[in-house]
Amino acid sequence: MSTPVPISLVVNGEAHDLVVPPRKLLSDVLREDLNLTGTHVGCEHGVCGACTILIDGRPARACLTYAVQLEGHELTTIEAVAEGDTLSPLQQALHEEHGLQCGFCTAGIVMTFEAYLRENPAPSEAEVRDVLSGNLCRCTGYQNIVTAVLKAAEAMRGGRGA
Amino acid sequence: MTTETPFTHIGKPLPRKEDRRFLTGKGRYLDDVVLPGALQVSFVRAPHAHARIAAIDTEAARALPGVLGVFTGRDLAQWTAPLRLAPPIEGLHPVEMTTLPIDKVRFHGDPVAVVVARDRYVAEDAAELVEVSYEPLPCVADTAAALAPGAPLVDDTLPDNLVSHQSFRAGDPVARRAEAARVVEARFDLHRHTHVPMETRGCLADWDAGRSHLTMHIGTQAPHPMRSQLAARMGLTETQVTVISPDIGGGFGQKIALYREELTVAALSRHFGRPVRWREDRLENLTSASHARETHCVTRAAVRADGRILGLELDLTEDFGAYCFYPANYMARVIAMILTGPYRISDYAFDVKVVLTNKCGNGPMRAPMAITSWVMEGTIDAVARELGLDPVEVRRINAVRPADLPFTMPTGEVLEDVTPLETLEAAVAAIDVPAFRARQAQARAEGRLLGLGLCTVVESTTYGSEFYKAAGIPGSGHEAAWVRIEPSGAVNASVGVMGSGQGYETPLAQAVAEGLGVTPDMVNVHMGHTDIAPYGMGSRGARGATAGGGTLYLCAQKAAEKVLAIAAGMLNLNDAQGLRLQDGQVERRLEDAWQATGVSLADVARRAYLDPTALPEGIAPGLDVSLTYDPPAMTYSNSTHACEVEIDPATGRIAIARYVVAEDCGTVLNPLVVKGQQQGAVGMGLSGALFEEVIYDESGQNLTATLADYLVATACELPNIEILPMHTPNRKTPAGIKGMAEGGIMGSIGVIAGAVNDALAPLGVTAEQMPLSPQRMRALMRGAGNFTYGTSFSDPGTTAHDTTTHGTPGNSDGRTGRA
Ligand code: FES
Ligand code: FES
Questions:
Q1: Who contacts A128 (Cβ-Cβ below 8 Å, separation ≥6)?
Q2: A5-80 maps to which CATH number?
Q3: How close A115 gets to chain B, by Cα (Å)?
Q4: B680 CA to middle of ligand 2, Å?
Q5: Quick check: pTM over 0.90?
Q6: What are the extents of the domains in chain A?
Q7: What ipTM was assigned to the predicted interfaces of this complex?
Q8: B752 CA to chain A: closest CA distance, Å?
Q9: Whole domain around residue B333: which residue ranges?
Q10: Domain A89-156 class in CATH
Q11: Do A21 and B252 touch (CB under 8 A)?
């Protein structure tokens, strides 16, 4: 369990060869071994959603996953969402609508909805709230996050000419 | 209500500066600050609520590869001084605690030993191997047990568990009872909460043996008081300690005190001569960080037949837990001081007891006085219910009216420039109460439970030093700032408050920009670093805007004076009369219009720093201005919350159909940020009122140690909030700022209780205890004898005026209320 083993991880399109203990959580490997500290850890028991990343494009809890399980999968973290200096439509909407305060939950929420809005480009408010219920935010009361997601969805539909 | 402001930058809804780094994963929270070679700690915690520590065997833990040491309370006692809280307050016992317990543990989760290891995984393995032998002691798990004669002592040095007891009387409330048409008694039980910042506690201590200097990286709302505490407890001078607060993932009052774990980590860093870090896990955060509330109140209102309150008495008991990180009277006292809030009550008495129990220690949580508005408004609703009056009318007849201002509360607190009656009327109008009552009557006839709540809040936001002194609470309320215009004309500024996620950077830059005459993007406000920021009292209450923003605004004005004096010299004028700085350019008033002079702030700065011999006589080189400011004794903002609910009789679920807040928080620095605080506070208040609860069993075991047990509301449970903003400036504070951010908690707790009890009225039951969970709702409905599914409910007559035709309060049968 604690004897390190070699693994190779593909994160944000880049391959990394690492040596990590099999019991080391993916959240810790991302943060400590790869310096990708944008993924936050709020509970380490799968409830808060702060650690949400994408595994093969689908949201997953990095705190409930061992890094050694992920060889051969594509991981995406918050650091890969903006293109250079340009925020994604979702990030931009969260900024404009004041959909974040302390920002600790934000990465998990961005990752959740980057994936969800691809799956459902025209969600209702109730659908957004339902999906958002997997992420706890202690600061905002969620209202502005919901507004921002709906606004981003609209912007993304417009952007695609849909 | 004023909407026009005389300001250029104050009051603009600018999106926040800090968003970009948070949105892109580039924020720097504590765990993102890395120091090479840092050791990690893990705490060994008590499994008992109350027990003697007989022996601690650390051998197996020490033998684990990667472990550098295991330390106990005895070790820490050699390296650190205990915390002694002995403010000279009548009725408050002095208390003292060591850095880690030595002889006994006082609650489930009390830290008894600490493991230092090369990484967190190994530290946690080793913590499991530390063998502590305990001799369990009988515990007190609630205030009744704690106050019983012969109860086991939580703190062996005290005569009993009543750590603080204070009473007060203004006028003669007992005599008022005799004169009253009715004495209405009401009870309020606000359960135990905890703060749950999404980022738990943690710290990174870095002892520099060469310089004998401690640098403490820690997310703290109050960096300078933290530095004072660290220095004092470690036997260092304040020159030997630097506190640096990185971005904070929420605080809500949990990140103010210097906790025992943090002091331990600092001491270990000095012991090892290496950086040492601690990251609290969520289980520790929920069980051992800090709890809040658990306040029980009883009121007795002596009332006339028309609902006018002649006298009010309050009995308050707070379950404070096992340790005092704050003077035990600190939170409860404020509740009692401001209880009467928006109402004209002159005969008032309180009796406030704070009791130690074998639970995690209490601290201030966003709205330390959270229960206040529920108690006052719930009392008003009880009066309306018992007398069969319209609850809106009972509020009106008792409200502080504009002509009453400034109004002195019976406790001596002075309300100025507040508008409680106006916010009430605004909320009542927005809801359209008659239309709601018609819908409600219709729904009742169909067997559905609809309710409307109203809650008027007077929020104490900013505590000046005078308040602390008068209230017998230790503390200072002043704040400090500096503004520096650098040689290039760039503006740096700093202040002693430290945000924990609210978004101080933008509104405070707006305050500086306004005071100085530049644009907010020219200003960078530096906070959280004790070697950079001036000594201020940090962020507590809702003092960020009034104390933080106000001090910066005044300081920037002072800087502008110097800038203009130098500019006058550059323009060959005798003085700065008729000059102003606007967007970084000096302008001159000529024939009723402001005209450009061609002199910029950068020109002035260059002269101030690089050509000082050319400065006007008597003006010193540089542009470096500092200022301290002590706000008025107390600044109040006010609001009225209104909320419509429907309770599902089958499941007990409370659905919030509508939620309105009319709020007057004076001049606001940034309405976008203020709205975020209003929504966030209501969300947190509702979450606490409906779902959250720290539960201890009778043996003092904490049963809510995960986020699957301690239930924080998700997006599916919280409503959208309609805000009706009002802006009556406070004439005594800089720029008329009042502050806000906690009133939303007070209002939401009070309003949801009011709405639920209005909905339950036909069943003749009243919810007196929170959380208003589905289980509690179902239990109440089961307890209502006349309740079966699908029956229609008669209107309990809340708007009738004849007090004599109504039966026992709480009995809806046979009532003849107006339909
Ligand atoms: S940290 Fe992974 S869900 Fe909370
Ligand atoms: S913004 Fe602080 S937890 Fe969501």
A1: A113, A146, A149, A150, B715
A2: 3.10.20.30
A3: 16
A4: 9
A5: yes
A6: 5-80, 89-156
A7: 0.97
A8: 16
A9: 138-196+290-401
A10: mainly alpha
A11: no
